[in-house]
Amino acid sequence: MKPSLSTIVAAASLLYTASTVSAQSKPALKKETYDGCYSAVPGMEDRGEAQFQTVGFCQNLTVVNYNKPVMALSAGSNCWTGDELPPSKDKVGDEKCNSKCQGFGSATCGGKNFYAVYLTGTMEEVPRKDESSDSQSSASIPTPTQGAAPSTITQAGQTIVVTAPGSAEATTTPKAKGSGANKAAIAAGVVVGIVGLSALAGGLFLFMRARKRRALEEEYRRNAAISGISGGGKTDSASSVSDSRLEPSVMLQRRMSDGSIADNQDYSRRILKVTNPDGT
């Protein structure tokens, strides 16, 4: 049975909807930014070892699965995620992060007990964890005011020292971007998914309806053909019934009668008569 046009259109619509939902549900990945090699990453979580670990694989895991702005790789195989950059005091030379990535030997993925830290690109400004003062220094550019000391900020993987001559005070304003866009993308994906499921249900309903109609038509044609074949060998039973009064022998007897039998009488049926036994 060849597929109908409605079936083909429904299948194409389903494939397009599925690809649209998949594309909208995944946030777009930006270029990761290397921040440095660290001896410790407090506050970050180890997401496990991957057999084919690379920087891109860890970034995809960090952004898509956990929506984190900071990631780190260690021992060539493990991926870490977090919301803050490690403290500056834990930063070491890049030669410490010399372990080859298990999925791409031409690149390095941290070192043994050392961590290559990257910004994933989901946030423009990422705070840095400061253990000495137990506070967070924002990555946003401060606004100088009266009487301030030099402050250190991190923006897009670069360390910037801001100094204010004379009287200046650095104020920091942490900003978190990206979560609103991700929520909008998730909501759009849900709406498109519902529309896709509705289209799929409608296509299946039309397909089953057309299939049932074709089956009924084929059954009707089959029954009609069988009735025509069986009806051709039958004869009309009414034509086989003959009137005995029209038999040739009866008609001949009527013509050769000597007058003792009335031709206008019907002798095909018995006629009862009353007869005088005396003959009178």
Layout of helices and strands:
Elements: H1 5-25, E1 33-38, E2 45-49, H2 55-66, E3 70-74, E4 78-82, E5 91-92, E6 115-119, E7 128-130, E8 135-137, E9 143-144, E10 151-155, E11 158-162, E12 170-171, H3 179-231, H4 248-255
Antiparallel strand pairs: 1-5, 1-6, 2-4, 3-4, 3-6, 7-8, 9-12, 10-11
What does this 3D model show about the protein?
- This protein has helices spanning 5-25, 55-66, 179-231, 248-255; strands at residues 33-38, 45-49, 70-74, 78-82, 91-92, 115-119, 128-130, 135-137, 143-144, 151-155, 158-162, 170-171.
- β7 (128-130) and β8 (135-137) form a beta hairpin.
- It is α+β, with helices and mostly antiparallel strands.
- The protein has 4 helices and 12 strands; from the N terminus they run αββαββββββββββαα.
- α1 (5-25) runs antiparallel to α3.
- Mean pLDDT is 74; it is low at 132-148, 164-176 and 235-239.
- The chain is 34% helix and 17% strand.
- The strands form 4 sheets. It has a 6-stranded antiparallel sheet, covered by helices on one side.
Which key features would you list for this structure?
12 strands, two-stranded antiparallel ribbon, alpha+beta, rod-shaped, 280 residues, 34% helix, six-stranded antiparallel β-sheet, single chain
